[in-house]
Write a structure and sequence with these properties.
Distance between the termini of chain B: 24 Å
Order of helices and strands of chain B: HHHEEHHHHHHHHHHHHHHHHHH
Oligomer: heterodimer
Helix content of chain B: over 70%
Strand order of the largest sheet of chain A: 1-2
Shape of chain A: globular
Largest interface: A-B, 36 and 34 residues
Shape of chain B: globular
Strand content of chain A: under 5%
Strand order of the largest sheet of chain B: 1-2
Largest sheet of chain B: 2 strands, antiparallel
Radius of gyration of chain A: 21 Å
Number of helices of chain B: 21
Structural class of chain B: mainly alpha
Distance between the termini of chain A: 27 Å
Order of helices and strands of chain A: HHEEHHHHHHHHHHHHHHHHHH
Number of helices of chain A: 20
């Protein structure tokens, strides 16, 4: 089932590649249908998912040999964390594929790359083999490289190259760490479940530290954390709206997901030793991301930097959850659940924000906030969507971001009280920067040049409405998501 | 009967002679017939090599090693040569007597096969010389074209020096150890006889001589010129086939020395790091795609040396060496096949917008470059993965880190080309060579992806291989 969910978008991508003469509309229909089909399969997996206390950690498991002599198998299976991230990715991919692109060049190739990226993203969240995890991690770079470079604007090639090189450097650090990790078990295996059970590096000081450093470095680049986040703003600004939404919504999660799944789960002792430095880095990301975002006059750069801030919250929660081997179980579980909810929430919220920003570019060709103002008069529906997304992003109660941030901070207070207290400043700054953004762009005087600014079309509106409905649903009735994620958190903390 | 043990080599010689005779008598328009003869000879040789499956012994009075390493290496050499032959008929169509080309090509392959199987220092010397002499001719084949002559000259001058060093090294070793057979050398080294600084010098000189064929520092300088100036089929051949033989020859030489003697492995590790770093840095701003591939193949020689470094330190070093060599050969040959198919167009700017005009060719070029970088799921990723695993397992983690940093650097120049291919505006229609080189492009592309699927059985086969004397 999971294998099919990964395979179907890949087949869709292949089909679009071998039929390059299809028109734009036909290509889009095929792409939407393929991604919806894959999402339906995930819904079935969710329906069958057992969140009870005695349920197995990884469900819907399946395997097939690839390189048996190295212990490499195709292994898929999901726990609550990976399933929730996969579902969120599924939603976001459907939304971004359906989002109107005004006559992209070579539409078949455009949608084929999107489906390719969907396949590798779902694959990354669902595989349980370290080597294949790495394969998907690298393939996501390739897909993104071509999407940004080919359909971006401005110095898109430069941004794509910078993105590719930075994240490949990070991914090679991960590869070396993976090799270091698997060489400590005999015979070598890349099976994540076996490695989690074996805790192969317990009690190895220097070597464990270096391997942890490799993982953290690699995932920090992808997440991205301060100070290795500098590839992110150009990549976001040059990419088209839907691509930015995927980049922020799905690809950044690969970093934080990897951080939980691999160093946290497979090297508990070492992770606990280095949790405090990681929390400090997360704090730096929170503050740096927020402050730099406040200083941006470019709409998209501002949203991009808030991603650095929000991923900082996530990593803070992860660090707090992994800081101790025993004790404060409830708080750590809460921090981890919060971190995963933040991943899901940030994916949906920032996905929506970047789609909105893409709408701005499609209408006026500029992201400069000074060029806008008073849009609430001409585009009320767009304004409503932007206000909801911005409020959710700044953590207003009743919206998804709040659910995540409350849990992260409550959990972190039990473990790192000082860091949590300073981190709260980040929320204040984010509130300020989003309110100013809303005020400047949607309220005040309408510039003459923007009088013809079109409101969202029916298609754009329904996509945004669907995403934001989920954001509100998580905000007011989070139980369904928390049960799913909590089952994973308690297993991860408790084992 | 020992003569049967060298039957694949004999098949190649016979095919070479037949191809030459055919070329001498056939009219101009039928010169490509020699290619068919060469391909038939290779097919026979492959069948004969496969007949030696499972053999592990020295033969022909100890001068030839029949083992897993030589078996796989000779198979790769033969397949690589056959691939280069596919590129040649179209390329040399206007050359009135190009049938002789296939004879030289086969003899070059024979030199590489002899390097892979050499079990004796004198045999090794002869093999290196045969491979070199044919290489000079292949590089300078276009005798009316200055760049081709220059490539041949540079190759020849470097080769004369490297071969002199090789012979000096072999002489020193013969003098100190009293023997040239590997089995005897290994036996006396195990007993600790003949250990002296001079022996270290002898080994170092011999290794340098073989490193020349591999294109490793300090004897690498010919590679970019040959890649740029030699006819594309020759460039494809010379950057791949002799390297396969040289890699096995180096491994066999290093295997003679127990890790605790002579400190040979740190030396090779340093050469590996220097080779990959220099190759990558030099490739950075190349605006000529053939020079770029040439420098990148210097860098790849550095990766080969990683596996040689940990021979005897990690159980999987040999299988990693074979896996990497195979993956490198596939990636490099596929890239050169694209260059040949596009009639040798060489400036990077000529590749603008190739994806729009020739999407399949562009895809093959991009995946072969991704394979050379080592991006999954291409075959190159698995080769590099095996290398990284064995290097870390053998205790040379720093070398693996250097290699990873180099991989990032290499992405930069490969991605420059990939970017142009995919993102830029295409020029007018693009002229292509003949159908046979087009077939080669397709085969190359299929192997780059398909090789990764088959990696499971390949790894198992390589892991069963042995390296004599072991």
């Amino acid at each position: 089932m999971l294998t099919l969910a990964i395979l179907i978008p890949m087949l869709g991508a292949l089909a679009l590649t071998v039929l390059p003469s299809l028109g734009h509309a036909a290509a889009r229909i095929i792409a939407v249908a393929t991604s919806t089909l894959s999402f339906l399969l995930l819904l079935i997996v969710w329906y069958q998912f057992d969140t009870g206390a005695g349920a197995p950690a990884f469900q819907s498991y399946a395997e097939a040999p690839w390189i048996p002599s190295l212990g490499v198998f195709w292994r898929v299976g999901v726990d609550g964390m990976s399933l929730s991230l996969s579902l969120m990715s599924g939603v976001l991919f459907i939304a971004c594929i359906a989002w109107p692109m005004e006559n992209p060049e070579r539409p078949c190739a455009y949608y084929a790359w999107f489906l390719f990226l969907e396949s590798v993203s779902l694959g990354l969240f669902m595989v349980l083999d370290l080597l294949i995890f790495y394969v998907f991690f690298d393939l996501s770079l390739v897909g993104m490289f071509f999407l940004i470079g080919r359909w971006g604007h401005g110095d898109a090639q430069g941004a794509a190259l910078k993105f590719f090189i930075y994240t490949l450097a990070g991914s090679l650090a991960i590869l070396l760490a993976i090799i270091g990790l698997v060489l400590t078990v005999d015979p070598i295996t890349f099976d994540m479940r076996a490695l989690i059970a074996a805790q192969p590096l317990a009690g190895m000081d220097l070597r464990g530290g270096l391997i942890l450093l490799g993982f953290v470095l690699g995932f920090a680049v992808k997440a991205p954390l301060f100070p290795v986040h500098t590839w992110l703003p150009p990549a976001h600004v040059m990419a088209p709206g839907p691509v930015s939404a995927i980049l922020a919504g799905v690809l950044l999660k690969m970093g934080t997901y990897g951080l939980v799944r691999i160093p946290f789960q497979m090297m508990r002792e070492t992770f606990a030793d280095y949790a405090l430095p990681l929390a400090i880095v997360a704090l730096a990301s929170i503050l740096w991301g927020a402050i730099v975002a406040l200083g941006q006059t470019d709409l998209k750069r501002r949203i991009a930097y808030t991603s650095v801030n929000h991923m900082g919250y996530t990593v803070l929660g992860i660090a707090a959850a992994g800081a101790l081997l025993n004790g404060a179980d409830g708080a750590r579980e809460m921090a981890l659940t919060g971190a995963v909810v933040e991943m899901v929430a940030h994916g949906l919220i920032t996905g929506a924000l970047f789609l909105i920003a893409g709408g701005f570019w499609a209408r006026s060709g500029t992201y400069d906030m000074d060029a806008y103002g008073g849009l609430a008069k001409v585009a009320p529906r767009l304004t409503t969507a932007a206000v909801i997304a911005a409020f959710a992003s700044l953590g207003l109660p009743g919206l998804a971001g709040f659910v995540a941030e409350v849990q992260i901070f409550v959990g972190t207070f039990a473990v790192f009280p000082v860091i949590a207290a300073i981190g709260l400043l980040g929320i204040l700054i984010t509130a300020a920067l989003f309110l100013r953004l809303l005020q400047q762009v949607f309220f005040g005087d309408l510039p003459k040049a923007r009088e013809g600014f079109a409101d969202v079309s029916l298609r754009e509106g329904s996509i945004l409405a669907a995403i934001l409905a989920l954001v509100i649903l998580i905000g007011i009735y989070p139980r369904w998501l928390l049960d799913l994620i909590g089952s994973a958190s308690s297993a991860i903390i408790g084992s | 009967m020992p003569i049967g043990d060298v039957s694949p080599e004999i098949a190649i010689i016979v095919a070479a002679v037949l191809a030459l005779l055919f070329a001498a008598f056939a009219p101009r328009r039928m010169q490509a017939g020699s290619a068919l003869i060469a391909l038939a000879g290779i097919a026979v040789a492959i069948a004969l090599v496969l007949g030696q499956l499972g053999e592990t012994r020295f033969t022909f009075s100890g001068t030839w090693a029949l083992d897993g390493a030589s078996l796989w290496a000779r198979l790769m050499i033969l397949l690589g040569t056959a691939f280069c032959i596919l590129l040649a008929p179209g390329w040399f169509r206007t050359d009135p007597r190009h049938g002789e080309y296939y004879t030289i090509l086969l003899l070059g392959a024979l030199g590489a096969m002899a390097m892979a199987g050499a079990g004796d220092l004198l045999q090794l010397t002869i093999a290196v010389l045969l491979s070199s002499v044919t290489g000079y001719t292949l590089a300078a084949w276009h005798r009316d074209w200055a760049l081709s002559i220059e490539a041949g000259m540079k190759y020849f001058l470097m080769g004369a020096l490297a071969n002199a060093l090789l012979i000096t090294g072999v002489t020193l070793m013969l003098g100190l150890l009293g023997n040239t057979g590997y089995a005897d050398i290994a036996a006396s080294l195990r007993l600790g006889t003949g250990l002296s600084p001079l022996l270290f010098v002898g080994f170092a000189l011999t290794l340098t001589g073989v490193a020349f064929k591999l294109g490793a520092v300090p004897a690498h300088a010919w590679l970019p010129d040959v890649a740029e100036g030699a006819p594309v089929p020759s460039a494809a051949f010379l950057t791949v086939v002799p390297k396969i033989g040289a890699a096995i020859a180096l491994a066999r030489l290093v295997q003679l020395v127990p890790p605790e003697f002579l400190g040979l492995r740190p030396l090779i590790a340093i050469l590996a790091a220097a080779t990959m770093t220099l190759g990558n840095l030099a490739a950075f701003w190349q605006d000529d795609i053939r020079r770029l591939i040439g420098w990148s193949s210097v860098a790849q020689a550095g990766y080969v040396l990683m596996a040689v470094t940990v021979l005897g330190l990690s159980p999987d070093a040999l299988s990693a060496l074979l896996a990497f060599i195979a993956s490198y050969a596939i990636g490099n040959l596929a890239a050169f096949a694209v260059v040949a198919y596009l009639r040798g167009r060489t400036a990077i700017a000529d590749y603008d917008g190739l994806a729009k005009r020739r999407p399949i060719v562009a895809t093959v070029l991009v995946i072969s470059f991704l394979s050379l970088v080592g991006i999954p799921p291409t075959v190159g990723f698995l080769g590099k993965l095996a290398l990284f695993i064995t290097t870390i397992d053998g205790g040379y983690t720093w070398l693996a880190v250097v290699a990873a940093a180099n991989t990032v650097a290499s992405l930069f120049y490969y991605a420059r080309v990939m970017g142009r291919v995919y993102f830029n505006k295409p020029p007018e229609d693009i002229a292509v060579l003949d159908r046979s080189s087009g077939v080669a492009v397709l085969i190359g592309g299929i192997l780059v992806i398909g090789g990764a699927v088959l990696a499971g059985s390949a790894f198992t086969a390589f892991q069963l291989s042995q390296l004599l004397p072991g």
